[in-house]
Amino acid sequence: MASTPKRLRLANRRSRRHRSGLGRRGAPGTAPGSLQIPTDAPASAMRLIAYGADEMLDREVQDVAEIRQVLGQYPVTWVDVVGLGTEAVLRGLAELFGIHRLALEDVVNVGQRSKVEDYGEHHFVVFQTVQLSDHLEIEQISLFIGEGFVVTFQEKPGDSWEPVRERLRRGTGRIRGAGADYLVYALLDAGIDGYFPVVEMLGDRLEALEEHVFSDADIEILGDLHAVRRELLALRRTIWPQRDTIHTLERSSPPFSHETQVYLRDCYDHVLRLVELSENLREMGANLMDLHLSMTSNRMNEVMKVLTIISTIFIPLGFLAGLYGMNFDTHSPWNMPELGWRWGYPVVVGVMVTVVVGLLLYFRSKGWIGGGKR
């Protein structure tokens, strides 16, 4: 089997660290609130969406000063930042919205556990979204909600929020007439809904592997099962903390109104369903792995049984052949009389055939071969 390229091995190792919660951290002894931006982080791009019941503004912005001019003119202002590589943008937004430096540090040091923190004038929410390609990709989303504003930070382009933006453009539902708390609910709900296709795809992979387990004993199946179980474990580590996050937000008043808390309860139910589905799939993967090992062991036992039966049959034949193959002469009265007997050879061969047939009938009566009783 060809060795994995070093670059791919390192990428997989970084992905596993991220999925296991061992994300980026500052050097030991670094002062709290230090902003250490990774060198591989993409440049920050800002998008401003400000809206009310009757009007909406949606455009890309290049400078924090443009946001400052719009802030307060609309009931809700949403600033979406994609990419964490521009320090000036991050510090400018932190100054504009009063983001605490410890919270900003958690924004940059991705791999944080899903959580909710209250900083007085605003709440800080960390949650994760997932995508499944060759492997499970987990992205940290950092969200700040305050009086009339929402600020979100994403690691990279591509998200599950386009339906929310489309609802804002069309003005459908109650999203345009609601406050910033309802926008946060809509973003969380869209992110959680993105888990269901991933869970379904992992379930489809397990079902495909289940068919191969019964039809094929290839050792590669064991590796595929282990890979799916590893993805399910990473998914579980991501979903479980978000259950507590949604539950905390559901009971946070302010900033969430009673009407929005009702919707958050529905979001909480979705998270519980995801937890149950992921647990069921993990158990299914463990059962398939045990089944594969059991079937492989059974196949090995069948092979060993056949070889043992063949060896058992040839043991008496080897004894007879060895006994009469000593070739003593006929001058001693203690030599084998059959060596000088005309019918000695046919009789010995007949005895061998009788032994073989007798052993086969005995094995069949025990159910070891054929269709005898077991």
Features:
374 residues; alpha+beta; Beta Polymerase, domain 2; Methane Monooxygenase Hydroxylase, Chain G, domain 1; 2 domains; seven-stranded mixed sheet; 14% strand; disordered N terminus
Number of helices: 10
Low-confidence runs of at least 5 consecutive residues: 1-22
How many domains make up the 3D coordinates? 2
By CATH, the architecture of the largest domain is named 2-Layer Sandwich
Structural class by secondary-structure content: alpha+beta
CATH class of the largest domain: Alpha Beta
- Count of distinct strands: 7
Major β-sheet strand ordering? 2-1-3-7-6-5-4
H/E element sequence: HEEHEHHEEEEHHHHHH
Overall geometric form = rod-shaped
Task: Give an account of the 3D structure.
The protein is of the alpha+beta class and 374 residues long. It folds into two domains: 35-294, CorA soluble domain-like (Beta Polymerase, domain 2), CATH 3.30.460.20; 302-365, Up-down Bundle (Methane Monooxygenase Hydroxylase, Chain G, domain 1), CATH 1.20.58. It has helices at 6-19, 64-70, 87-97, 101-108, 162-170, 180-193, 195-215, 220-250, 258-323, 344-365, and strands spanning 45-51, 56-61, 76-82, 115-118, 122-132, 136-146, 149-154. A hairpin with a 3-residue loop joins strand 4 and strand 5 (122-132).
